[in-house]
Amino acid sequence: YLAGDTIWNEYVEANIAEYKPDVIIVNAGNAQIPGLGSIIMSPEDVAKVCVAAPDAVIIASHMESVNHAMTTRADLKANLADRVLIPEDGETLDL
Hints:
Blueprint: E1 2-4, H1 10-19, E2 23-27, E3 32-33, E4 37-38, H2 43-52, E5 57-61, H3 73-80, E6 84-85
Parallel strand pairs: 1-2, 2-5, 5-6
Antiparallel strand pairs: 3-4
C-alpha cells in the first residue's frame, strides 16, 4: 500500500483494515504548510500505521527531501527504528 501524500486519517485506516497490506510505504517527513499544518505523515501518524498494521512491513520515505519537512531520519529512528524501515538516499530494499 503506497499511502502517498497524506496524513493519518479515517481513509488510510479503512484501507489498511480492508486490504491488510503486507507492505506499507508512507511519506513521513511531516511536511508543513503554514496555517494548514501537516500535509504528510508525522512520527505520530507513522506510529498509528504501525498499530493498525502490526504484521506489515512499514517503509518510511520523504524525510529530509523538501525544505518544509520537519521530520528527519534520526527523528524516526529514535522511536520507530524497531518497527519501520528507514532507507538512506539511494538505498534499495529487497522484500
